[in-house]
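INFO batch 0412 | record 1 of 1 | parsing
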Amino acid sequence: MHSKRKILIAMMDGFSPNYLQASEMPNLKEMIKNGFYKTVNAVLPTVTNVNNTSICTGVDPTVHGITANSYFNVTTKTEEYMDKAELVLAPTIFERAQKQGMKSALLTAKGKTQTLLKSGADIGMAAEFPSRATGSDIRWTDRLGAAPEIYSAEINHWLLKAVQLLLDKHNDVDLIYYHTTDFPMHMEDHMGELSQFHLREIDKLFGEILNGHPDLEVYLTADHGMNFKSLCHDLNKYLPEKGLDIFFAMSAERDPYIKHHRNFGGTAYLWLNSATDFEQAADIIRRIEGVENLYSRYEASSRFHLHPDRIGDMIVIGDKNTVFGPLDQATEDLPNDFRTHGSLHEASVPMVIYNRDVDYSRWDDCTANYHLTQSIGF
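INFO prediction complete | emitting tokens
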């Protein structure tokens, strides 16, 4: 019966295959050996809210409607965070679990995820704000100590201990969604000391959890990878300097966690003052150093499965070294340790399924990270 299943969905923020390969993670690698592994693609823009929502709903952004970390409200002319549950147009895995009579929990590092993906979750807790937890009488900080700050690796370890606590002490919870912060990946590449420590400790906790719950089904993937970036353009300044005023340009990366990335990302949306400006804008943008490609609204919607009503008139994509975002000038050379994501070059992510039989006849069709939760079976 469904009620007897125990399911852990682990959405490892920023966890590209090179982190897995380079890190001491014997427990996860044992899961791979005895389970299923495939390298799949994240959704563009390769930013957290788009991919987290895709994974949590099991569908692409055409269906669920989340197209960036923020959106531009053309009526009020303001940038607003895409962090509200009412913006999600498709059922979450928690709502699907409810229909199976299953109790579920959303445990996340980031407050924005708790407000975005909460629909249907019986328990919700963001390690960033544990006092705002819902649906449980657990006093999280009494049991686990104070949560580390959001800009740390340790917050992910604290959160996984919360998963362990829930599994050990609350047998009525059938499904847990665990979402980390990618701060360690922004700070270091896969060979860095912080990265190695971060993933080594997560793996130890995975091992403890599986020792205590050997039948636990584990579904693990990531929202995006991470790369060093060397160049940033502010399209709101660049295009007017080249003779074309635009309505607005916005980095798809924009969210509250600016220490991670300064709101610089590899994909930008651009709103024009007039549809007749498209060719002039395209001509200017194609000449910008580091621009890999651009698409019109409906080209982008078709190619990248984006909700057409929630993106700009144009989508601009950077190469591996280039990002877009707000600057004091049109272009800035970035420091050599700056790391972020958002382009197609951060699309490769791992998928791991453990303790769940997978239909091999459908395995070739599994190409995207959001196919992970389709394999759960409800």
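INFO post-check: The radius of gyration is 20 Å.
INFO record closed
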